[in-house]
């Protein structure tokens, strides 16, 4: 056998071996990629299942207790400027299902009113307090693993104490509302950030409508009033924001 033929056979054999090795390597790579893709699909499926379990665990609680505080801009008289107030707020929610809840709510506000300018009593910023006891409904319209949004509508009673810090002078003499209990309403939207399924931080911007009344008569010279003696507003709008902790317990 000639040397040329031997070399040709050797070269052909080498080419065949190289092609076979390349095909084997390619097949192994394809199988490995398929296995990795399958593993990723299994990982994503496991993650989605875990999130679904967490969401169910978080929003299947029957009860919520909320406690916190906040800030409000309050109108303390029909002729007075708005004043700043500090709030405390607490609520108890009973969930009928994952979305709807019955709400019981109690709040208190404390601040200093802007009394009528240059009043003859020398009282410029008397302390005032309001307490609200309301009930209503809540609707959770967005819920995810870590975040939830809900809207509340409440109605009940607002109890105003406007003469307690006015040095024994009736609050109506300073342009404040009359003391007493009057209907009150509140509309709000809450945003929750969940630390755990049973524990969250909640922020709630609020609108509170009050119906406090001006005094029937007060010995205030007309020259001290900032405008004509207009009838008192039938509904006062007060805006604020509360923040606090939510604790969930029980099961639906």
Radius of gyration: 35 Å
Fraction of helical residues? 10-25%
How far apart lie the N and C ends?
91 Å
What spatial order of strands do you see in the largest sheet?
A: 1-2-3-4-5-6-7-8
Structural class: alpha+beta
Overall geometry = elongated
Strand composition percent: over 45%
What's the helix count? 1
Whole-number mean pLDDT = 84
Biggest sheet features: 8 strands, antiparallel, barrel
State the order of secondary-structure elements, H for helix, E for strand. Answer: HEEEEEEEE
Would you identify the regions where 5 or more consecutive residues have pLDDT less than 50?
Answer: 220-232
Total E-strand runs? 8
Question: What's a concise summary of this model?
Answer:
The protein is α+β, with helices and mostly antiparallel strands and 252 residues long.
Question: What would you say this structure looks like, in words?
Answer:
By secondary structure, this protein is α+β, with helices and mostly antiparallel strands. Helices cover 23% and strands 47% of the residues. The chain has one helix and eight strands, in the order αββββββββ. The chain has one helix at residues 3-59; strands at residues 61-75, 82-95, 100-112, 127-143, 147-161, 180-196, 199-210, 236-251. The protein has an eight-stranded antiparallel beta barrel. A hairpin with a 4-residue loop joins β2 (82-95) and β3 (100-112). The longest helix is centred in the N-terminal third of the chain and has 57 residues, at 3-59. The protein is elongated and about 130 Å long. It starts with a helix and ends with a strand. Residues 220-232 have low confidence and may be disordered.
């Amino acid at each position: 056998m000639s040397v040329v033929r031997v070399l040709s056979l050797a070269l052909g054999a080498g080419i065949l071996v190289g092609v076979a090795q390349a095909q084997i390597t390619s097949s192994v790579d394809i199988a490995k990629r398929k296995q990795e893709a399958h593993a990723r699909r299994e990982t994503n499926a496991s993650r989605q299942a875990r999130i679904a379990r967490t969401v169910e665990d978080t929003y299947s609680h029957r009860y919520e207790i909320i406690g916190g505080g906040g800030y409000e801009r309050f109108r303390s008289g029909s002729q007075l400027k708005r004043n700043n107030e500090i709030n405390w707020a607490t609520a108890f929610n009973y969930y009928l299902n994952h979305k709807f809840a019955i709400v019981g709510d109690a709040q208190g506000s404390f601040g200093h009113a802007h009394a009528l300018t240059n009043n003859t009593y020398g009282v410029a910023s008397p302390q005032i307090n309001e307490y609200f006891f309301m009930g209503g409904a809540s609707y959770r319209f967005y819920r995810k693993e870590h975040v939830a949004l809900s809207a509340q509508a409440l109605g009940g009673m607002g109890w105003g104490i406007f003469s307690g810090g006015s040095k024994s002078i009736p609050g109506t003499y300073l342009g404040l509302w009359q003391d007493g209990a009057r209907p009150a309403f509140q509309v709000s939207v809450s945003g929750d950030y969940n630390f755990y399924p049973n524990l969250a931080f909640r922020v709630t911007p609020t609108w509170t409508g009050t119906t406090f009344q001006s005094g029937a008569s007060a010995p205030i010279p007309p020259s001290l009033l900032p405008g004509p003696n207009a009838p008192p507003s039938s509904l006062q709008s007060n805006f604020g924001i509360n923040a606090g902790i939510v604790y969930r317990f029980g099961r639906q």
